[in-house]
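Multicopper oxidase CueO: structure, please.
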Amino acid sequence: MIKRRSLLLGGAVAATGAASATGAGVLLLSASPSSAAAPAPTTSGATTATGIDPGSIAKYVLKMPVLPHQRPRRVSFTTDYYRMTMAEAYKEVIPGFQTKVNTFNGSFPGPVIDAWSGRRVVIEQTNKLDVPTSVHLHGAHVPSSSDGGPMDLIAPGGGTKTYTYPNEQTHANLWFHDHAHHIESETVYRGLTGTYILRDQVEARLGLPSGKYDIPISVRDARFDADGQLHFEMDDFFNRQVVLANGKAWPYFEVAARKYRFRIYNTANLRSFQFALGDGSPFTLIGTDGGLLAEPYVTTSVLLSPGERADIVVDFSRYPVGTELELRNVITQAPGTPPDVNQVLQFRVTRTERDHSVVPAKLRTLPALRPATVERSFSLLMDESSQEPAWAYINGKEYDPDRIDTTIDYGTTEIWTVTNDNKIAPHNFHIHLVMFRVLERGGVPVTEGAETGLKDTVFLRAGETVKLQATFTGYRGVYLYHCHLFDHASMGMMAQMQVV
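Here you go.
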């Protein structure tokens, strides 16, 4: 079993002191780009950064691409059929270099699958990489045979597996990624992620920005060697100082002076982001992991830990043509963190256009909370000493694929109290199969903002406790729950539940 000690603090010693997702208390930094080069901090557990200095990379010279929407190879009355291939390719990720990356169908990050609630999607995945893979559709309500478990592997060099997604859930902002145990940290870092947008008529009838004004954005960080290649090692959070949006380092994106819908995905291994506009102006949060909130929420920032999603509407009609506006990461950073990680991308208002889209005062009716009959407690803990190797646990145990940690009766509604028992390291908590509701954070009921909707991943600062409620229906079988900071999961912070 691969073990690394953690500075692991990964993702985010930075996130430990971050302000809430409502934007209260957030320091909004200058909207002008930083051109100063900053030396990479050296920390125990991470090597001294070498290779391309992030401060030397020109910002806002590459255009952020709109991710390609994958077309099905065949459709029937009930089902859309796709074929996808995992393989290496070369892409211009930073200006002037061709970087070798992992791709789905040649796209970095992977393409967008457009799905509809009640209509099946079947994807035949072929693995042409030199390591085994397992494709997990994050946030999906699927049979365990198609969940992409860490030991349910596709052989390298051309192995194939077919995944069936019934889509028997309401609209949601889903994504897919490798989940092969001990390998996923590196394969995801090198690019094995993709977007899966599940739509339904409830969402479609609202009149929200759509079509070319509905843009998924995958945000993550990276580190590059002197040849412009991705450099991967565990515990390397502080040296991953290049921020990528849709596979480009600090890109720009041209917009019209009208409303846009941005579905933002944090696909980083470890880093949390708190997204805000560079001028501190508000935007409208309309949804999160499991789709739309009950009603829009106006805020100045939103916090996403790895695996979480935010669905926002930005109205650029308040800006004159010619405006350049940054999307920034305003999370409280650890001492010595360079300014580059505070910049994400630049919006350029280049034209005017008519806008008939709206953001209704009521978005959806969320499912009623059922009476809970079972309560459970979970402790997340990892070694924070200097010893090698480091270990990570849920309820004092490392992941064991031959052990069932929690047995759940089908149809049961349960309340889970999850505590981060570390003093420094942040974690988050992802449950496969189900969406959940966040009831409390730190003993305080959740009544507004991002955590009032349907969630599948929740952030926990050091010492923090959250209370979640979920109903386990649809499918029986074995599923995971784990920390979604990939290095922590690789070190053992995963467990298995069996729905019987």
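Notes: The two ends are 29 Å apart (CA to CA).
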